[in-house]
Write a structure and sequence with these properties.
This is Prophage protein DUF1660. It comes from Mariniflexile gromovii. The protein is built from 2 helices and 4 strands; from the N terminus they run H-E-E-E-E-H. The termini are far apart. The chain is elongated.
Length: 82
């Protein structure tokens, strides 16, 4: 019964998770169908395999972001101004 509005009007997707800047996970507000962005940038159904890939991508992305932030902080601490 929940799928009838989606069949008639189409899905109403919202972002449920930002994996990286370009990869996101989406879910339909009505029927809870889940999609993700694949390697070519198209939306694909979120399978357990894609879920695992997104988990790894998110972990790598967060690690890289924190590493870049540490470099900025360290470089700012070494600058002396008189």
């Amino acid at each position: 019964m929940k799928k009838i509005p989606c069949l008639v009007f189409g899905h109403d997707f919202k972002v449920t998770r930002n994996v990286t800047y370009h990869v996101k996970e989406y879910a339909c507000k009505t029927c809870n169908k889940q999609l993700t962005t694949n390697s070519s940038g198209h939306l694909t159904e979120l399978t357990p395999q894609f879920k695992e890939i997104n988990d790894v991508l998110e972990r790598i992305h967060k690690k890289r972001i924190s590493k870049n932030n540490r470099k900025k902080i360290k470089s700012d601490l070494l600058v002396f101004s008189h």
